[in-house]
Write a structure and sequence with these properties.
Elements (H helix, E strand, L loop, with lengths): L2 H4 L4 E3 L7 H12 L4 E4 L4 E4 L5 H11 L7 E3 L5 H4 L8 H6 L4 E6 L6 H4 L4 E6 L3 H9 L3 E3 L1 E2 L11 H7 L5 E4 L10 E4 L6 E4 L5 H5 L8
Parallel strand pairs: 1-9, 2-9, 4-6, 5-10
Antiparallel strand pairs: 2-3, 3-8, 4-7, 5-6, 10-11
Helix pairs in contact: 2-7
Length: 217
């Protein structure tokens, strides 16, 4: 076993297209026990903990080295109303289309843990499509944090060896191999009109503008 592999307590190989139930089940058991894991999304590895467990979320933040808000991955649009207080009328068509790689900032429901919102009034949600992420999110209860699996200030990565080396002490790494190249998600605030792009990413502004009112850069 290489030194890189040894930095993670439990590294589980998983087929990126056909994730095995046993591997997903092991990840869910770690999450339910309050652990912090890394898992593959479309282009980058992400960190997750139980989104309803404040202690686990604080452990995730400590691993990453930041107290910033944590975006949530969902696999089904029905989950939006579980975390968001409302979807502004102009954004409904956007969420119906929901381009891959778009994270949408919405008003948070009362009771959403402040570890997810950073103590603010909004929650960031992304509809994931990667088979492993979809299977894991659904098995874990419908939503999971999806902050990039790197220390704050370091580049995000789609290489599981980098994740293992840079984040020692993770409780589990779901290793789907090196992921297809691609950037982070675009972060879009739809709580006001026109919408504001908070972080440029894989969905270009013109594609968003085709679905609703977006402020000039």
């Amino acid at each position: 076993m290489s030194a890189t592999v040894a930095t993670v307590r439990n590294r589980v190989r998983i087929d990126p297209r056909h994730p095995a139930h046993d591997a997903i089940g092991e990840a869910v058991r770690v999450l339910n026990a309050g652990g912090v894991i890394a898992y593959p999304t479309e282009h980058l590895y992400a960190l997750a903990a139980d989104p309803r467990n404040p202690d686990a979320l604080r452990r995730l933040a400590a691993r990453k080295g930041t107290a910033k808000p944590l975006l949530l991955a969902i696999a089904d649009r029905d989950e939006v109303t579980r975390w968001a207080a409302a979807v502004p009328e102009p954004a409904r068509a956007l969420l119906a289309a929901w381009p891959e790689g778009l994270t949408v900032v919405l008003p948070a429901r009362p009771g959403v843990p402040p570890e997810l919102t950073g103590g603010g009034a909004t929650i960031a949600l992304r509809l994931v499509r990667a088979p492993v992420a979809v299977a894991l999110v659904r098995a874990a209860g419908g939503a999971l944090p999806a902050t990039s699996a790197n220390r704050a200030g370091a580049p995000a990565t789609g290489d599981p060896d980098r994740v293992a080396a840079d984040l020692p002490g993770l409780d589990l790494l779901l290793d789907a191999g090196v992921l297809p190249s691609g950037g982070p998600s675009t972060l879009l605030d739809v709580t006001r009109t026109p919408w504001r792009v908070l972080r440029a990413g894989s969905v270009f502004r013109d594609a968003i503008a085709a679905l609703g009112p977006v402020a000039e850069a």
